[in-house]
Amino acid sequence: MTAPSAVKAALASQAIETPSWAYGNSGTRFKVFAQQGVPRTPQEKLDDAARVHQHTGVAPIVALHIPWDRVDDYAALARHAEDLGLRLGAINANVFQDDDYKLGSVCHPDATVRRKALDHLLECVDIMDATGSRDLKLWFADGTNYPGQDDIRSRQDRLAEALAAVYERLGDDQRMLLEYKFFEPAFYATDVPDWGTAYAHCLKLGPKAQVVVDTGHHAPGTNIEFIVALLLREGKLGGFDFNSRFYADDDLMVGAADPFQLFRIMYEVVRGGGLASEVAFMLDQCHNIEPKIPAIIRSVMNVQEATAKALLVDREALAAAQATGDVLAANGALMDAFSTDVRPLLAEVRADAGLDPDPVAAYHRSGWSERIAEDRKGGQQAGWGA
After folding, report:
1. What would the pLDDT profile of 185-216 be if each residue is shown by its tens digit?
2. pTM over 0.90
3. Burial 242-281 (b: 16+ CB within 10 A, else e)
4. 8 Å CB contact between 238 and 198
5. What is the pLDDT of the chain when averaged over all its residues?
6. Beta bridge mates, 233
């Protein structure tokens, strides 16, 4: 059994990355509902992110998305983050919204379009240099909708060529994180549809290329914790994107649909040493009908609760039951931890850090929501262009 002091220390040192785009207007292809007080600039997104970190104590990193977060001076943006007690995390590339990318980006049959996409990826590495960011996050909407539309093998060749060019441009302390998604928007053959495809490309590229697992990017019934365990074992889990889904890539608050799955995933993270590694744990969510900052705070808390339960698993009892083939005792060891109410423990962790034990209540008392609703009148609200 892990000592309570060790559990509290692990929870206090946890770092969860929040996405800049979750503070802006975001939603579905059907509709994006605007809200009052939404940031108009990347700087205002960071201001909101600082409130999340202020109340939770474990959200000091903010991911950027280019061009949604494009500014004239990225070094100045990094200084603004630092002044707020934050740092800039993954730089997320965008090669899926331009009309040129209708048939793909780096896998497009036209070399001119592939060059445009590659130039953007290299631009993102330049931004990493300016901001001090470690990670380049790559997700491609590339794929085909119809059999025969393009040659599947040739598209993999084009993908490999682009990834190799980006990999060569990375600095010694920078990484490429390759994300996969089994469908949408490509419905016949997606070019990076699963962890195996991403892993194969990353393995060939080298140690600076690693795989990103997104909770919502799998077919129903997929054992995500198995994927996490295997990639951790191979040293190829570079990042984990937290969200929740009922049907597809819903991007709902993490733990909303299946908190037991989140617990199982976090147990494999703990078991595989992921908390003490360089794995980037990031929320990748959109908040369309719920208030954005409280939803992000709640998501951070949900990850904390799942982590606390994973840390409380009696691993000695579990190992003993597994070794003797005691199926019920082994499952019981996990279920006992999952059934534990860890909210008092997390309240202690926050109190020890000088924080309010209830981050959501503290945020509502802060008056920040009312302040930004008044101060941010006028201008163009940030959004993802849907």
Report:
1. 999 999 999 999 999 999 999 999 999 999 99
2. yes
3. bbbbeeebbbbbbbbbebebbbbbbbbbbbbebbeeebbb
4. no
5. 96
6. none
